[in-house]
Design goal:
The complex is a heterodimer of chains A (475) and B (215).
Chain A: H1 9-17, H2 20-42, H3 47-63, H4 65-78, E1 82-86, H5 89-102, E2 107-110, H6 114-118, H7 121-127, E3 131-134, H8 137-145, H9 161-171, H10 181-198, E4 201-204, E5 208-210, E6 215-220, H11 224-229, E7 234-240, E8 244-245, H12 248-262, E9 270-274, E10 288-294, H13 298-301, H14 317-320, H15 325-328, H16 339-350, H17 352-355, H18 367-371, H19 378-391, H20 397-410, H21 413-430, E11 435-436, E12 451-452, H22 459-465
Parallel strand pairs in A: 1-10, 2-3, 2-4, 4-7, 5-8, 7-10
Antiparallel strand pairs in A: 5-6, 6-9, 11-12
Chain B: H1 3-14, H2 22-31, H3 48-58, E1 62-66, H4 72-83, E2 88-91, H5 95-98, E3 106-108, E4 117-121, E5 124-126, E6 131-135, E7 150-156, E8 160-161, H6 164-168, E9 180-184, E10 189-190, E11 198-199, E12 206-212
Parallel strand pairs in B: 1-12, 2-3, 2-4, 4-7, 5-8, 7-12
Antiparallel strand pairs in B: 5-6, 6-9, 10-11
Classes of the chains: A alpha/beta (475), B alpha/beta (215).
């Protein structure tokens, strides 16, 4: 949970929109991601069938989640790992901190895990006085900057190359040779290498939990997950309970969807199945492996209208294709998860009262649902939050009065037509140049962009002009 | 109530209280793997070896084809020379490698944190994706695949499987699972700075496959 949730979505998005470098940084990464995904799917004729199958696999797991959790626990235990259960984020952090203390850990390496961010593990380790070393390059950048991730795949996408160079020059000894991306990657490789090998505990997340082997699966392109989980004495995994799949083969079917949707690759450079601690005689590996299964609101979603969200495999395609995310970036959302999937999950995690603006920060254009590799109807779920927000009385008096006025008009077609006729003429007057640069009493609509002026009359005027009959004239 | 019990009971309540029969669940799970050819891409070439090589090379790996395991040292030597690397090289402690005549090369079992190059053995190749599979074990150090800048991997052509599921089918039950099963698909890389691709993040920047056709 991020502390920023409380400072207000509107203030944060205003600040984001006023920041010119942010827009450049977001465009560079999301633009590339969108193009690469499209290219990867163009070469995968079986995508639609794979997508339906992937959704069916996740639905099957959720419908039998108790069965698969018990099966996973049994097999993971048999492999020598210890399984822990945490109902809440604080329980999860307490378990991890206790395990670190039992291991006498001074230094902990961490391989990027959004679940870890969700439960607030970075801060918990800090409060416990344990040195935390983020090993994913982007997480290393935001650790130096003292920030939270702004994207679930590219946590540092809000920072330009020049801004990263500034951080590295201040922290890395020796500093990078120049501010080209290649030199900075080289510098991070050098700085982090020693830390990987001297860590007492390595913490990772899991992209999948394999029920029939008891293994956890991580995917990375950098190789940092394996360097995090092999050298230390103890490997701790934190994972959400919805990450289960029946077998490795089911995981493979989902990996094809995950990687293409996330980065446009076919498979990440490293896909690793971690099954228990070091075996007798093994040449390397940790002596102990712990797996912390985290609920944190997930079990409640099984019975409510947000169940489909449990299919999410965290690819980030919905945010890469979201017109709102691409304007304001991830930090404006204020939760752990940004974009459309974040706008659905944050109210679950932080409470609707804290985050009621998020389901409204959506144009309902449907792009997110279209690109979702597991067919999550994100606009429908966002609409469900809007309904809940209304019923809980979280909408302010202006919104309620405005909607009541609209509802009054919408029930009186003649009056509605008259009002929309006046409205469209007023807008035409304001938009004589073709664009509307400012709106009286509604400046928020035009503060950061111009609106196109209406080019014709109202919908009904144009509809009847085309010779169509009015609905009430039919029969 | 323990966290375990409260989570499981919340799930069961959410699911409506009735529990499915394990045999029925297993049958449904098996159905979800039916007709795999409809949910995966076909191979990019007619044979497993050609498809594997085409995919590996597209990912930036290089491939050398040799006729027998005895030719491994010569192939390694050629690669090191081509890359301007020293003859001192970390080699996996596999029995297969111990018996080879390494000639002028100086193989060592230890792999330094900044090792320029190391030679390892892959258990399988996957033709669909051009992936190499390594399993941790008594002879296989996982770090040997991650610490060096150049990872040289010996792969027997006969051990290449067609698709990801064909490999996954070998990992059923924890008895058959090694501690780590790693699918390596091209050299390490990152796009974390402005989305631009940089090769050689934490793992090897170069992957060289020595493909052995020894039947």
């Amino acid at each position: 949970m991020n502390a920023t949730t409380r400072t207000g979505f509107k203030a944060r998005s205003d600040a984001a929109l006023a920041n010119p470098t942010l827009k450049t940084a977001i465009d560079r990464t999301t633009g590339t991601a969108e193009r690469k995904r499209a290219a990867a799917l163009a070469g995968f004729a079986e995508y639609e069938a794979a997508r339906s199958r992937g959704s069916a696999i996740k639905d099957h797991v959720i419908a039998n989640l108790d069965h698969y959790l018990e099966m996973f626990e049994r097999n993971a235990t048999a492999s020598g790992a210890k399984v822990h259960w945490a109902a809440t984020e604080s329980e999860a952090c307490d378990i991890v901190i206790r395990l670190c203390r039992e291991a006498g850990a001074k230094r902990v390496t961490r391989s990027k895990s959004m679940l870890g961010e969700e439960i607030g593990l970075p801060d918990a380790l800090g409060s416990a006085g344990i040195e935390r070393v983020e090993t994913d390059l982007a997480e290393h950048i935001i650790q130096l900057a003292g920030e939270h991730p702004s994207h679930i795949i590219w946590p540092a996408m809000h920072r330009t190359r020049e801004q990263v160079a500034e951080l590295f020059n201040a922290d890395h000894k020796p500093p990078p040779a120049d501010d080209e991306a290649a030199s900075m990657v080289q510098s991070a490789r050098h700085v982090l290498r020693g830390k990987f090998l001297s860590a007492d505990v390595g913490i990772s997340g899991a992209n999948f939990l394999i029920a029939d082997t008891g293994a956890t699966c991580t995917v990375t392109n950098e190789g940092n997950a394996e360097l995090t989980t092999t050298p230390p004495r103890v490997h701790i995994v934190t994972a959400g309970i919805e990450k289960l799949v029946p077998s490795t083969s089911h995981a493979m079917a989902l990996l094809r969807l995950l990687v293409r949707s996330a980065t446009g690759g076919e498979l990440t450079q490293y896909t690793t199945f971690h099954c228990g601690p070091k075996r007798p005689g093994d040449a390397d590996g940790p002596e102990k492996m712990h797996i912390v299964l985290v609920d944190n609101g997930r079990s409640e979603m099984i019975a409510n209208e947000f169940r489909d969200m449990l299919r999410c495999i965290r690819c980030g395609a919905c945010m890469n294709h979201c017109v709102v995310y691409r304007q304001i970036g991830g930090h404006a959302y204020g939760g752990t998860y940004p974009g459309p999937m974040g706008a659905v999950l944050t109210p679950v995690l932080d409470g609707l009262a804290q985050s009621r603006d998020l389901p409204f920060a959506c144009t309902m254009n449907g792009r997110c649902a279209e690109v979702c590799p597991v067919e999550i109807p994100l606009p429908t779920l966002l609409r469900a939050w809007r309904g809940r927000s209304w019923r809980a009385g979280l909408e302010g008096p202006r919104m309620r009065a405005g909607l009541a006025a609209w509802a009054g008009l919408a029930r009186r077609p003649g009056l509605y037509r008259m009002a929309s006729g006046i409205g469209v003429r007023a807008l035409r007057l304001l938009g004589r140049s073709g664009w509307i640069g400012s709106l009286p009493f509604a400046g928020g609509w035009t503060r950061h962009r111009d609106l196109p002026g209406p080019t014709g009359g109202t919908f009904m005027e144009r509809y009847t002009a085309r010779g169509a009959r009015r609905p009430e004239d039919r029969r | 109530m323990s966290a375990r019990d409260s989570i499981l009971s919340a799930i069961r309540t959410g699911l409506g209280g009735s529990r499915n029969d394990p045999a029925a669940i297993a049958a449904e799970a098996a159905d979800l793997l039916a007709a795999p050819e409809t949910i995966r891409p076909p191979l990019v070439a007619a044979t497993l070896v050609d498809a594997f090589c085409e995919k590996s090379e597209a990912l930036g790996a290089t491939v050398d084809r040799i006729g027998s395991i005895d030719e491994v040292p010569a192939s390694v030597g050629r690669y090191l020379e081509g890359q301007g690397l020293s003859a001192e090289i970390a080699v996996e402690s596999a029995a297969l490698f111990r018996d080879l005549d390494w000639g002028d090369l100086r193989p060592r079992l230890a792999v330094a944190p900044d090792a320029p190059a190391a030679v390892g053995l892959a258990r399988h190749g996957i033709a669909e994706s051009g992936s190499l599979v390594i399993h941790s074990g008594k002879e296989t150090r996982i770090l040997l695949a991650f610490l060096p800048l150049h990872h040289i991997v010996v792969l027997r052509a006969a051990s290449i499987v067609s698709h990801l599921e064909d490999y996954a089918a070998l990992l059923v039950g924890h008895e058959t699972s090694p501690r780590n099963a790693v699918l390596i698909t091209g050299p390490s890389g990152t796009t974390d700075i402005e989305g631009s691709y940089v090769r050689g993040a934490h793992g090897p920047g170069f992957v060289h496959v020595i493909l052995v056709f020894d039947a």
